[in-house]
Amino acid sequence: MANPTSGARSKILLGIESTFGEAATLKYKLPFVDESLNANLESVRSEALLGYRGTKSLAPGREGTGGGITLELFPVPAGVLFYLALGLATLKDPDSTPDSGDEYTEITAVTSATGNLPSATIRVDHDGIIRDYLGMKLNTLTLEMAVGGIPRITTDWVGIQESDEVATEGSITEPSDDPFYFRELLLSADGTNWTADEYSRVTLSIANNLDTDDYRLDGTGRRKTIPEGNLAITGDVELLLTTDTFSDQYNKFINFQDASLYLKFEKSTGEKLIIKLPRIKFASMTHDIGGPGRITLRGSYEALIPSTGQIITVEDYTNDTGTY
Questions:
Q1: Could you give the CA distance from residue 143 to residue 122 in angstroms, rounded to a whole number?
Q2: What is the distance between the alpha carbons of residues 17 and 202, in angstroms, rounded to a whole number?
């Protein structure tokens, strides 16, 4: 009798596809907590009437893949996930001196003029039972950070096909030794002074609003493309109600003024990830009293296109190549 498979012995590998839907070389091992990637196969019931009660045929209809993966925020491969969610990676060299050690990869969002989101091949190894998922695009990525916990990324994927073992394994990049901890997170309102110490919880969600219905009469039943829709970047915050937060964040909400939010994860060993939201607006902000204890402001926000620069920028200091 075969032994049952277990999650403890399972792993997930990922590679960036050169051509949408064609198996990539697997490069990254993901530090996942749970996953729910599955094939979706629509069945079409025959409605033919043949003189007796019952269904004569079930035909295969539209085919696709999708599901979620929850991960802890490790320095590697955090940048890979933000690249798949946003789409553009550029090498930055502040001192213009190659290989001087200050190089990092800047990740920004694709626009209609700069191409499409990249796709990935994802391998789920269920303790030896292997399924490969092709043409996988990130529909949403949500980063959640709170006091007392390890930051987590929740991802939702859409793809075109589940296959047997068709991808090849390259040199696998393992996750870093340790994830980022909440104690390694600093926040800023301007990207310079990392002294915003009133927050207890922050979430950031990137939604690509993918078009998942591009099916054609091409003999496959699979999606032809998965184009991105409008980019929506939203989130929630919890922070203490003080005279400072009342005159700053709450005042900006009530007067419908722009704000900014910058997040920096940095380890003492040098691994660093910076997320920049130069223009946000608070869509809601409450200051309810729930008892004799401290009063918390709970708000939601949305990132907006600034007059100059990017709606969101992610700086990955663990990658000094500009590519993934």
A1: 20
A2: 32
pLDDT 10s digits, 125-149: 999 999 999 999 999 999 999 999 9
The answer as to whether 322 is a domain residue is no
Dihedral, CA of residue 317, residue 310, residue 224 and residue 42, to nearest 10? 80
Residue 248, helix vs strand vs coil: helix
| DSSP codes of every residue in 13-60 | EEEE-SSTTSPPEEEEE--EEEE--EEEEEEEE-----SSSS---EEE
Please state the rounded mean pLDDT for residues 202-217.
96
Q: Any idea what the Cα angle at residue 115 is, between residues 111 and 116, rounded to 5°? A: 90
Q: Print the domain residue range for 305.
A: 12-41+61-316
Determine if the pTM surpasses 0.85. Answer: yes
Residue 210 in domain: yes
Residue 49 lies in a domain: no
Tokens coding 129: 């039972």
The amino acid sitting at 251 is: N
Alpha carbon distances (Å) from 68 to 20, 32, 76, 248: 20, 10, 19, 37
Q: How many domains does the chain have?
A: 1
- Does position 266 have pLDDT exceeding 80, yes or no? yes
Q: Residue count of the chain, please give it.
A: 324
Run of H or E residues at 122: strand 120-126
Residue-wise burial string across 2-22, b where 16 or more C-beta atoms lie within 10 A, e elsewhere: eeeeeeeeebbbbbbbeebbe
pLDDT level of residue 115 (50, 70, 90 thresholds): confident
Rounded average pLDDT over 210-223: 94
**CA separation, residue 76 to residues 19, 26, 38, 171 (Å):** 24, 15, 25, 15
CA distance 316 to 270: 11
* Cβ atoms of 77 and 271 closer than 8 Å: no
Q: Could you tell me if residue 265 is inside a domain?
A: yes
